[in-house]
Amino acid sequence: MQFLPILAVLLAGIGLAVQPPTNAALARTSGSVLLAALISFIVGTLTLLALWAALDRTGPAAVKGAPAWAWLGGFYGAGFVAVMAFAAPRLGLATTLTMAIGSQLVAALVLDHFGLLGLRQVPISTTKLAGVALVFVGVLLVRR
Predict the structure, then answer these.
(1) What is the pLDDT of residue 1?
(2) How far is CA 35 from CA 50, 54, 85, in A?
(3) C-beta atoms surrounding 125 within 10 Å
(4) Which has the closest alpha carbon to 22: 97, 102, 81, 95?
(5) Structurally, how many domains does the chain consist of?
(6) Across the 144 residues of the chain, what is the mean pLDDT of every consecutive 10-residue run?
(7) What is the predicted pLDDT for the residue at 59?
(8) Beta strand segments in 1-144, E
(9) Which domain covers residue 15, as residue numbers?
(10) Rounded CA gap, 96 and 16, in Å?
(11) Other Cβ atoms within 10 Å of 86 Cβ, number
């Protein structure tokens, strides 16, 4: 078992649960979801810059051969952060996150099945479909 990656994912999941209400507080205070998301990204960028400077320092030229779609990660992240800050206070955090997780799992099944975006091909199985269906049942239960 790989303890460190599992621990890292669990801690990142906690961070993702805390991020929407944190950004929503900024949005409420400022009156702007977009400003709140921007501040979140500035803080995140500065954090990553400090970590990169202290621990890594891989030259920016290393990414020059990346495919065009690989540059869109920040776009998806910005959309996610802004939408979560908008939706969490309106739908409730648990509902917002279970809906987001459900949609992520559907996308993950498709990406895995077809081996898209550089992933290895992992076929969809009945068991995986049942697991994702249970998440959507969870969305309905959490929403009630």
Answers:
(1) 66
(2) 22, 28, 11
(3) 11
(4) 81
(5) 1
(6) 88 92 96 96 96 93 93 93 94 92 94 96 96 91 86
(7) 93
(8) none
(9) 3-143
(10) 11
(11) 19
